[in-house]
Amino acid sequence: MNDEITVRTLTLDDYDHWTSVWQRAGLHSVRSQGRDRREAFARQFASGTHTMIGLERNGELIGVVLTTHDGRKGWINRVAVLPEHRHKGYAARLVAEAEDVLRAQGMTVIAALIEGGNDASLALFNKLGYVELPGGMHYLSKRDSEDA
What we know:
- By secondary structure, the chain is α+β, with helices and mostly antiparallel strands.
- The chain has a single domain (5-127), classed as Aminopeptidase (3-Layer(aba) Sandwich).
- 30% of the residues lie in helices and 22% in strands.
- The protein is built from four helices and five strands.
C-alpha cells in the first residue's frame, strides 16, 4: 500500500487531534489550562499570527507544528511527531512547511527556542541550517500564571 502524505492548515475543529499528538509525542510544555486551551487558540488564530500545520499519513494526523510571528520575526513552535512515525523525515517536512507559511506572511527571520535536554530537536534544527546565536542568549519570561 502506498502511503498518502498530506499537509494542511489545521483549524479549531482539529484541536482534540493535535493535542492528542502533543500528548502521545511526549510534549511536556503544554499549558492545557492556559495558552493551549481551545479558547486561547481561537483568539490566537483570529489574530492572524498563529498557524497550526498538520501532517497526515493515510488520513491520520501524525505530526504537527505551530508557527507564530510578531510582525518582524517568525517562530517555529511545538514540532511533534508520533513516536511510531519518527525518523522518516516528517519533522523536517513540518519545519519546511512552517518556514513556507512564515515566509508567505513576510517573515525573513525564522527562529526556534529549544528546551535544554531536547537533543533530538536541537539536532533536527542544526541539520536544517539553524544556528545558535553567540553571546549567551537568555530566554526570560514573566507570566500571569503557571499556565500562561
